[in-house]
Amino acid sequence: MIRVENLVKSFDGRRVLDGVSFTAxxxxxxxxxxxxxxGKSTLLRCLIGALPIDEGEIxxxxxxxxxxxxxxxxxxxxxxxxxxxxxxxxxxMTVGENVALPIxxxxxxxxxxxxxxxxxxxxxxxxxxxxxxxPSQISGGMxxxxxxxxxxxxxxxxxFYDEPSxxxxxxxxxxxDELMMDLSNxxxxxSIVITHELRSAFKIADHMxxxxxxxxAAEGSPEEIQSSQDPIVQQFIxxxxxxxxxxxxxxxxxxxxxxxx
Length: 261
Prior knowledge:
alpha/beta, 23% strand, disordered C terminus, Rossmann fold, 4-stranded antiparallel beta sheet, 6-stranded mixed beta sheet, 10 helices, globular
C-alpha cells in the first residue's frame, strides 16, 4: 500500500531524513518509532504530502505523490485519514460536527445521510452518545476517539496516527490500541503509527521501522526487533542510559527534526 524509497529531506542544508526506505503492507499496522529528533515527525509530514521532499519516492498505491500536482495530491489524500496527536478537534463544533466536517467538505451527500454516517463512525469508536457534546465536555481519551472517528469519516484505505497513546493513562491507551487493531482486522485499513510508546508499539505492530538520526536503524516484525543485536536498537527498547545513543539531547546528536517537530 505504501512504499518509501531513498527519502531525503533537509532543512538549512542538514539532512533530517537521510535515505529512508521501507514498505507498509495493505491492511497491516506499521509502527514507525525512534527517539526524539530521529525524523518521525518529518517523515509523517512527507507521507501526507505536507512537506516537499528533496530526493526519493513516496508511493501510495500506484501513485508516486512526490511527483504529483497539488490538485492530484489532494485527490490521493481523500484515500487516507489523519489522527493528530492532540486530537485537533474544533472547540466551537460539537463532537458530531467535528466528525461530519470532512464529509461536508468533500462530498455532496444529503444532510440526513451525513448524520447517519456520523452516528456510524462514532459507533465504531464507542462514542455514539457523545454526538452533541462539545470537546470541552469530554476527556482526553474520548477526544482521541473522536479524532479517530473523524479520520474514518470518508472510509479511508489508510490511516496515519501521530502519537495516538501520548498523554493517556494505561487503560485508555489500551482502548486506543484495541481500536486500531480492530480497524485493521475488521475493515482492512492500512495503518501507519508514529510513536515512541514501546508497550503500545509492540502490542499493535505487524511491522516495525525504527529511525535513528534520520535513517532506518532497524526494520522487521516485533519479534525481529526485540531480538536485534544492534546496540542502538537494544538501548532504545530497554531504555538504558548506557549505550551508543548520547544521553544529552541536542540537534547535533539527533538531527534537525528536533527543530521542526
